[in-house]
């Protein structure tokens, strides 16, 4: 049998499992793995500037393409703790990433060695499995099990912690006979799916709530086929936005307290039946459960048995992978069509479309400083249907979700549950690595942008071109808005007079200078009329220089964005669009 170091065996398994894209940075305790990667030669590696950045890059890489598993690597101690936020974000959104950390030698683990921290204990709640390997001979089995776990059931991240001496110990490992373990994915039965559809056809105003599990299962086409076969409208969750194109007649809008459409919430409130597939009834989607559930029957399909009934007891639950379930749903729906059993939902779907036409928020404002709504209107014009958006949190992300358009799965790459500031730049870089031909457009507020701004240098160094729209209100805008409830505006201001950049007019950080200093290109926009030209220029700069291009838009300082505490009580701050010209890039024409 071939003999090699455990680190060489681990790296070989990455190749055999098809996970050959790593993001990370070396340190003494992980150098044997880096030496093994160098010897192997087939693992691509992007050197991050911050270890947390590496973990979000791995997430972006996984989220961008079906089947991808991004790897993030760091040394012992603080590198592992830095990646905890990425593990949290990945586990919360059911995203598989493999985190590999170095560790002090086995015999020194309990001696409070330099940078020896019990990372598995720290990572346990935010991973499917976190393990410190104490026996070198277990390394192949641990990596094999890690891939099995990441891909089975509800996907999620795994952390493998490798003590220095474990990495360097020689073991027997035969790569030629290595085989990945079978993946476990529960599947619905025909009886279950038939029962669910029988419940649906008894209803008058049914909806499908499509969740991120459908994207994870790569089953968007089946979801659209099901909706079209039944003629039932679809509400994508934020994690599933793009599962059905925004301009599809059966795309009924998003529901929720913040990242939602007026017509989506109105349609949900009118419905009497909801079939949830691969979703988790997130609280910012449902709001209060009394309002969300009132008068409706619920069926919930999820791959993870313990998700059924976690938030509220559905009327019927099915444990299934979304793709396996949708295959059967489509089959049974076609049988029902053939047997003339389906009700005609034509009037209901027309009502939903009517709401989509009439409940559009206004986007067209000419104000200087720019109102954010106008930025999204111009982005809709400037960026085509193939654009992949990346965003995280803040008023920027919320308004982006209200006004942008998404037309395909994995074209809205968003950190749904954890929402860590700073996620956007590294995640966008991970998307660029995964999809080098794609047009990637990231969206950040000024604070999110500043959190991991150093990662822009990674984009410059590794030639990862994308456009970063930075909407600058010199405020922690979302928190400023939520502090209205406390009648305060306390430590949410980011404005100051920048002694080096008087042209910032009190907006503080000069993002253009910082971005340029990090090797990127950057433009600043003050007047909304300049936006089309700025986006055109950004595309040119990106093509010419192959680096990230930042388009900073100086916004009005205070804009309140629609949100509320119940889906029937979302507060609107601007009037409804009345004529087409009020919302000229809305998907449904008003005139
Ligand atoms: C690590 C972390 N700390 C705090 C928060 C809470 N938080 C959410 S949004 C936000 C302000 C965001 O400001 P900015 O990025 O400028 O976006 P804006 O709301 O102004 O558009 C804060 C502090 C968070 N999401 N993540
Ligand atoms: Mg801001």
Report what the structure shows:
With 591 residues, the chain is of the alpha/beta class. It has 24 helices and 21 strands. The strands form five sheets. The chain has a six-stranded parallel β-sheet, with helices on both faces. The chain has a six-stranded parallel β-sheet with strand order 15-14-16-17-19-18, with helices on both faces. It has a five-stranded parallel β-sheet with strand order 10-9-11-12-13. The termini are far apart. 56% of the residues are buried. The mean pLDDT is 97. The structure holds thiamine diphosphate and magnesium ion. Thiamine diphosphate binds next to helix 18, helix 20 and helix 22.
The side-by-side strand order for the widest beta sheet comes to: 3-2-4-5-7-6
Radius of gyration, Cα only, in angstroms? 25 Å
Please give the count of helices: 24
Mean pLDDT: 97
Helicity, in percent?
25-40%
Structural class: alpha/beta
Q: What proportion strand?
A: 15-25%
Ligand species: thiamine diphosphate, magnesium ion
Largest sheet: number of strands, sense, barrel closure = 6 strands, parallel
Unreliable spans are: none
> What coarse outline follows from CA principal-axis ratios?
globular
**Count the strands?**
21
CA-to-CA gap between the ends? 74 Å
Features:
591 residues; alpha/beta; six-stranded parallel sheet; binds thiamine diphosphate; binds magnesium ion
